Amino acid sequence: MKKSLSIALIVTTCLFISQPVLWAKGGESLTRGAASLLVPGLGQYINGELETRGGKVKTGAMIVIEAGAIVTTAVVGGIAGYPQIWTGLGIFILNHIWSATDAYVNAPAGPEVSLKENIISDR
């Protein structure tokens, strides 16, 4: 078991290392990520992602998940109690992490520049 787990960990690490990862640099990206960590969707709004259809859908999903997590936490916490309350809190925490990571990664590096990698073919 330990051997197969170690091999899986090594393979996963090699796959992540081999992929190009582009992160936003500077204080603005941290500010946008922190804004979305506190209020999901705020960093996306600051990044100007609400100008595209995909950005609107993504931010809307974050807001709906946030509302659902708050309701789930209140209802499950009030009815079932302690151990089950983590169902709602887990959704709540994961939504905040997703929103903050997305805002940080998609923060523009300059005027109208995105940090997404664009591969241009020479064909």
Structure description:
- It comes from Candidatus Abzuiibacterium crystallinum.
- This is DUF5683 domain-containing protein.
- It contains five helices and no strands.
- The protein is mostly helical and 123 residues long.
- The protein has a domain at 25-105.
- The model has no long low-confidence stretch (mean pLDDT 79).
What is the topological layout?
Elements: H1 2-18, H2 27-38, H3 42-47, H4 53-79, H5 82-105
Helix pairs in contact: 2-5, 4-5
Helix and strand content put the structural class at mainly alpha
Mean pLDDT: 79
Strand content: under 5%
The coarse silhouette is flat
- State the end-to-end distance: 47 Å
Q: Which sequence of SSEs, written as H and E, runs from N to C?
A: HHHHH
Number of strands: 0
Q: Helix proportion of residues, in percent?
A: 55-70%
Residue stretches low in confidence (pLDDT < 50, at least 5 long) are none
Major sheet description? none
Rounded to the nearest angstrom, the radius of gyration is 18 Å
Q: What is the count of helical runs? A: 5
Keywords:
123 residues; mainly alpha; 5 helices; 70% helix
